Amino acid sequence: MSVQTYSPREFHRQAHDALGNPQIRANFRKAMDGLMTKRRDSFGDWDLEVLRELGANIRLRALAKLPDLLEQLEANCEANGIRVHWAEDGDQACRIIRELCESHDARSVIKGKSMVSEEMHLNAHLEEAGIEALESDLGEYLVQLNEQTPSHIIMPAIHLNTDEISEIMHDKTGTERTRDVDYMTAAARQQLRERFMAADVGVSGVNFAVAETGTLCLVENEGNGRMTTTVPPVHIAVTGIEKVVEHLRDVPPLYALLTRSATGQHVTTYFNMISGPRKPEEHDGPKEVHLVLVDSGRSSIYQDDELLDTLRCIRCGACMNHCPVYTRVGGHTYGTTYPGPIGSILMPHMLGLGDTRDLPTASSLCGACGEVCPVKIPIPDLLVRLRREAVGEGRGNVPGAGVKRTKKEVAAWKGFQWLATHPRAWRSGTAIAGKLRALTPSRLGAWTDYRSAPKPAGTTLHALVKQHEAKRHQTEKTVEEKRP
Fold this sequence. Notes:
Blueprint: H1 11-19, H2 22-42, H3 48-64, H4 66-80, E1 82-87, H5 90-103, E2 108-111, H6 115-119, H7 122-128, E3 132-135, H8 138-145, H9 162-173, H10 181-198, E4 201-204, E5 208-210, E6 215-220, H11 224-230, E7 234-240, E8 244-245, H12 251-263, E9 270-274, E10 288-294, H13 298-302, H14 318-321, H15 326-329, H16 340-351, H17 353-356, H18 368-372, H19 379-390, H20 407-420, H21 423-435, H22 461-482
Parallel strand pairs: 1-10, 2-3, 2-4, 4-7, 5-8, 7-10
Antiparallel strand pairs: 5-6, 6-9
């Protein structure tokens, strides 16, 4: 199946297309308004800042001990009967999963929701090997039918409205055209139920991996995660190395933050805790459970004492729901697995700034993403950091950092720096520029490919203030003269 693709290199063109599509803008506006309201109401009886501080500290403690916790997780998972595999990148993770499928002569895989599997393009890899991979999360199922990628990390099909979903299901599965959501949900459930029973392998993500007990926790609403991890004879869980937490008691606060921040729910319908394969006396569950731990650039992020804050993320999507840029252009515009503010600070490390240079600038820096992040990731600060690196300033730790500047550009900026630090020259220069503003060129190199060339103000601020003061004094003088 060919999937419609987007590229972070084409962010500006994709944003222009999205802004010109009133249906996409209406779909996102309606969805995001509802999500923001639900999140606010769900924390009504809680001391949110105390809970956020607790969540941030739990994630920071886990990251501080990450190498040791990963070893502890591996040891306890193996003791529970879960086989652990390590993958340096997405390609290696795909090979591991494919080899596990082939070792069981698997021809069909049913998948629960997993952004890491999206990140490594697992479906396409398995299909190349002749193994069918079917998404079981309803949103993921819909975008797969529509040959698209998810546009949101929590609600993959949020860019589609009821009519569009009805048309997709009618064209791809033969259901009736209808606006009856219950009918469409029941039809999808029936279609997927048959596939669960026939699948050879189930693949899932992981929300929290508990080092203390070797437990894999999955958060979901539809039951597809539970079906994926119990019905097929083999279960393969795949996750990034940062999802580990130290203690089982660390999970409840993070769970409370995740559900409320993501969908405004106090709890989700299902919370799954997987501690091993089926035991001899048990009647259901997989015969084998495997855990694939994926790095894919996370170790390099971990070595940067500022950017490692990115790894705190619990994938709630709240930063996207409140971002004035994301809510107008949608997830596909970013051209990356993780869109929105979190994607703009995570993907440059995974793909390099050469491909993602425009993402850190896809922000108004209003600070909303940082204010709503349940684990207090300083997203605005990291966006500014990446902007500096994109133009060759700062630490330069991110792959692809820095751009080549022409001699003319370097000279122009040095000239501006000198003018800005010499007040008399600045005032004279701006006054002259204002008089010659009609001669300002409309093209200023690549900068004006997506922007209008700025024109100097006709009158400087200082001149306007003087005019205002003179007018005020004249008014006061006139009033005084008219007094008897």
